[in-house]
Amino acid sequence: MKTDLINRSNVFAHKCVKLAINLPKNKLGSHIEGQLIRCSTSVPANYRAACLGQSKKAFISKLGIVIEEADE
């Protein structure tokens, strides 16, 4: 299951980046592009960090960050 979520979060980030770079090249498109790339690529990075947590509490705490970034 852990590797499944790692793969799915990487695919999610990749699709978001592809979407972002195809947005219109205007002020709003550029703003959304940057935000979408930042938050979507942080999902797999933060999930990997959560998996490396030293305790169950650390895992849960870091997983909360993953959820916040995905919601953004």
UniProtKB/TrEMBL annotation:
<dbReference type="Pfam" id="PF05635">
    <property type="entry name" value="23S_rRNA_IVP"/>
</dbReference>
<dbReference type="InterPro" id="IPR012657">
    <property type="entry name" value="23S_rRNA-intervening_sequence"/>
</dbReference>
<dbReference type="InterPro" id="IPR036583">
    <property type="entry name" value="23S_rRNA_IVS_sf"/>
</dbReference>
<protein>
    <submittedName>
        <fullName>Four helix bundle protein</fullName>
    </submittedName>
</protein>
